[in-house]
Design brief:
This protein is α/β, with parallel strands linked by helices and about 210 residues long. The protein contains 7 helices and 7 strands; from the N terminus they run H-H-H-E-H-E-E-E-E-H-E-H-E-H. The two termini are about 30 Å apart.
Length: about 210
């Protein structure tokens, strides 16, 4: 969840928020998937050839899993390259670079860089016929609930999987922090791959050994 922003902040400073996301969209568009992304995608392909499946449940919003080759990805915090219209609610995939002409080159991380103060009419707008509503990034902001349809799919996977790998996450953001423990509570093996010990997972496994 991108806790830095909320809908209230977007309502007050839409230009500033879009600057933030425009810069990060550009960074992500030029970022290659990591070795971990590729390994997960290769594992999915190998299992698929064996008639089995691998589902990636991610808090990331950068599409790097998909670019690495993963086909079955559930994004619980949304997607940086999707937009949602505040007027009609339409959700669209959007990889435009820049996302609109007024945001080209904007979003410098320099704390002394002035706000662009782009007029709302020049920010990303809805392409649906007769709408032209203001678009926002289709990501989960502070105070917002997760997509219930995505969560339903996640719950199904947690209830039926026979192995859970927790990879590269601090496991401190809920509800995702409890995905591993939830699976382990069924007696299913859970393995964590991280550069540091995860407090939440360690506590669970000490008190509820698999």
């Amino acid at each position: 969840m991108d806790s830095y922003f909320g809908l209230c902040c977007f309502s007050r400073h839409p230009s500033r928020v879009w600057e933030f996301y425009q810069y990060r969209r550009e960074l992500t568009l030029n970022a290659p998937p990591s070795a971990a992304h590729r390994a997960i995608a290769e594992c999915e392909a190998r299992l698929s050839r064996q008639g089995r499946s691998l589902v990636v449940i991610t808090q990331n919003i950068d599409e790097l899993h998909q670019r690495a080759g993963s086909r079955h990805v559930l994004e619980v915090h949304g997607n940086l390259f999707q937009t949602r219209c505040l007027s009609c609610g339409d959700v669209e995939i959007n990889h435009k670079s820049p996302i609109c002409p007024s945001l080209e080159g904007k979003g410098s991380p320099d704390p002394d860089a002035p706000d662009a103060l782009i007029p709302v009419k020049d920010l990303p707008r809805c392409d649906e016929k007769g709408c032209d509503g203001l678009l926002r990034p289709h990501v989960v902001w502070f105070g917002e609930t997760l997509d219930s349809q995505i969560l339903t799919k996640v719950e199904k996977e947690l209830e039926t999987c026979d192995l859970c790998l927790v990879v590269g996450t601090s496991s401190v953001v809920y509800p995702a922090a409890m995905f591993g423990p939830q699976v382990a509570a069924r007696g299913v093996p859970v393995a964590e791959f991280n550069t540091k010990t995860t407090v939440c997972m360690t506590f669970f496994f000490q008190t509820n050994p698999v």
